[in-house]
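Subject: for your reference before the review

Hello V.,

The reviewers asked for a structural picture of the protein, and I figured it would be easier to keep everything in one thread rather than splitting it across files. Below is the amino acid sequence we used in the manuscript, unchanged from the supplementary table.
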Amino acid sequence: MERSGRRPRAFFERVASIPLPQRVAQAVGESPVGERIARAQELVYGPLLDWVVRSPLHADEPGRSLHPPLTDVTTACWLGTSLFDLAGARRAATFLAGFGVLAGAPTAITGAGDWAEMSGPERRVGAVHALGMDAATFLFVGSLVARRRGDQRTGTRLALAGNLVIAGASILGAHLALRRGVARRASKP
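And here is what came back from the structure prediction:
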């Protein structure tokens, strides 16, 4: 009886020692839902993926992916949107929301190129990360449209929702880049 009492405790101690973001990424990587999302994205984006892998945005030199630094531009614009909303600077918030949407295109293209070369758990985590970022992009497009129509309140709310989605999706992207090393590619000889 004592032995079975220790097993759950040891399990929980081991699990508790793993940081929450890493546990989330591991669960997504092992999830059959993640695999279904990856297959669906392959069907939807298949023709684009072939082009992306050969595009200049997916350059192997100097052995690093272009995606991580581009994500900094996009997420900084969108975070700045919400900060300017808090400060009441509507024009600046609208500008950053729009610039973030524009910056999102090359960011997504470079991410798709990296994802096309992944397999296994990384592929599933990348697919869920991309789905989250797609959702955030749609929220920011909606925010921009609402702002351009003069509905600042809806624009602000959509931007805030987009930033919350980005926070979750970014955990998965950071896991891939920092823990799994997918942002590093071997340079071609």
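For the response letter, the relevant points are probably these. The radius of gyration is 19 Å. The chain has one domain: 24-179.

Happy to draft the paragraph if you're swamped.

O.
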